[in-house]
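Margin note: ligand = S-adenosylmethionine.
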Amino acid sequence: MTTDDPTLIEESLIRGLRGTVLEIGAGDGANFGMLDESVDWIGLEPNPDDTDALRARAAQFGRRREPLVASAEDNPLDDESVDGVLSTAVLCSVGDPQAALAEIVRVLRPGGSFVFIEHVAAKRGSLLRGVQRVATPITRRLDRGCHLDRETVASIRGSGLEVVELHEYRLPSGLGFTVPFVAGRAVNG
Ligand SMILES: C[S@@+](CC[C@H](N)C(=O)[O-])C[C@H]1O[C@@H](n2cnc3c(N)ncnc32)[C@H](O)[C@@H]1O
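Resulting structure:
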């Protein structure tokens, strides 16, 4: 991927998924437009307020599977049962990222891909990192468990997945400053 446009990078990563794909924290289905038509999509979303919208949007995009109402830390799929896993702005929100990643490793077939697009902690010692640390107790409460200061790539590597593609960029926060994002693909070895 030669572009440095974050939108194109994110689309390309999602579009590259094939086979049976589990999307954790699927929300209201914002990623359907970017998934390849051939994908057999399985959506997992623990928030019952989102599942009606997700079900409706899934039907619009011809996705036939009923969303799973479950958490990423405890998903009901069999071992090595999916070819890919997708997570966009979810590892910031899960209660236990290590447990969620362990479940991703468990359900991914060997050689399968984990595509992630997440906002992450700023550099240690930076002013923004300090702001993220102070603001996280508030965003956890007000923004569905969202942590601003997670070192998600280190957690992914720590889970045993091999990060084979990684893009790092900053996007506007809407509050006059930018925040760091990562987008990439990790493979189950
Ligand atoms: C910021 S939203 C992102 C939604 C969607 N992935 C997107 O990009 O539009 C975070 C999502 O993670 C879900 N979530 C929170 N905790 C979760 C958990 N433990 N397991 C799975 N999903 C979780 C929330 O319900 C919410 O739908």
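Residues 24-27, 30, 45-47, 50, 71-73, 88-90, 93-95, 144-145 surround S-adenosylmethionine (CB under 6 Å).
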